[in-house]
Amino acid sequence: MTAPDLPPSEPFSFATRADGTIVILYGSAPVRLLRGKSAERFAARMESADAAAAQLLMARATGNFKRANERDGRRAAP
């Protein structure tokens, strides 16, 4: 049995578009768009966050993404 792929140490990143929209990325895949007031609040929080806090803020902004409660597709034996 092989070990599962471990996520990178900093899997989340974000980019700000010219119109003020913030795109949160997991790896290279966009997972959330923030616009308006939510984008402003997010940007303000990110200014004072260190690397670990920034990863936590981005994970929270994505909602229920990667909380380790996803099903793995296997059925339990009867």
Task: Describe the 3D structure.
With 78 residues, this protein is α+β, with helices and mostly antiparallel strands. It has a domain of 50 residues. It has a three-stranded antiparallel sheet with strand order 1-2-3. Strand 1 and strand 2 form a beta hairpin. The model has no long low-confidence stretch (mean pLDDT 81).
Strand order of the largest sheet: 1-2-3
Order of helices and strands: EEEHH
Helices and strands: which structural class?
Answer: alpha+beta
* Amino-to-carboxy terminus distance: 23 Å
Based on Cα principal axes, name the global outline: globular
Please tell me the overall pLDDT.
81
Are there runs of 5+ residues with pLDDT below 50, and where?
Answer: none
Biggest beta sheet attributes: 3 strands, antiparallel
Q: What percentage of residues falls in helices of 4 or more residues?
A: 25-40%
Give Rg in angstroms.
Answer: 16 Å
- The overall strand count is 3
Continuous helix count: 2
% residues in beta strands: 15-25%
Task: Summarize the SSE layout with pairings.
Blueprint: E1 12-16, E2 22-26, E3 29-34, H1 36-47, H2 51-61
Antiparallel strand pairs: 1-2, 2-3
